[in-house]
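Hi,

Apologies if this is the wrong queue. I'm a grad student, and the batch job for YtxH domain-containing protein from Cerasibacillus terrae produced an output file that my downstream script rejects. I'm not sure whether the problem is my script or the file. Here is the sequence I used:
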Amino acid sequence: MSQNNGRTGDFFIGAVIGAATGAALALLFAPKSGRELRGDITAESQKAVVRANEWKETAQMKGIELKDKALIVGGEWKDKAASKTSELSQTVANKTKDLKNTATKKINDLRNIEDEALESAEEALEEVAEKLEETAKKIDKE
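Support response: The file is valid. Your script probably expects a header line. Output copied below for reference.
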């Protein structure tokens, strides 16, 4: 964008120089007296200065407008980025919490299954021990 502004400035400078040169040449080749010619040159120079000032003011106003627009758009983009970042952070936090809860539930389920299996194994061992004692008593009686 800065290259475009440079080109615009170059164009305006070229236009002012071209207008001044054209006016000066027109005055120089016009059949007038020296005093009249100097008056015309002064008048045309003043007009050129006025036009250049108008162009300068227009360029400054456009520059201010563009700067203000850039600040507004930049602020909007910043706000959108902050909002999206916040949303993503919240989503990640929720997903992490859900994953932790799911993992905790699975671990607890596995522990319950393990506890049930241990209880069943203990009961089975007790039954086997009782059967062995009964069998041992029968063997002793015989």
